[in-house]
Amino acid sequence: MKTTQQHHGTRGKSGFTLVEIMIVVAIIGLLAVIAAPNYVRVRAFSQTNICLNNLRQITGAKAQLSIEARLTQGDAVADEELNPYLKQDFDELKEPAGYSYVVGNIGIAPACTLGAPHEL
What we know:
By secondary structure, this protein is mainly alpha-helical. The chain has one helix spanning 18-68, and strands spanning 101-102, 111-112. It has one domain (21-112). The protein has a two-stranded antiparallel sheet with strand order 1-2. The radius of gyration is 30 Å and the shape is rod-shaped.
């Protein structure tokens, strides 16, 4: 019995060509260029939202403190006095961009020191 061997012409088709790899890299680069500005914008938007939510917590804590301690308009508030009224300690309320919060006196809205400070 004779066995016949068939060759399927696999010569020359073992991988990607340089042109194909360059096209894929160019497409990935184009997608990165399109996505980068959106990432920066979304990141800034989320940092602003985190800061505004923290300012809302501080405002609520100041209101509760003023009622319980019978503080009046203009009375000074120390950061540590707000701890019982916050979900976490005041020191753990980190401003996402690395700035700090200014609590202010009773009747004055808190603010953060982000570039152009945003307030409630």
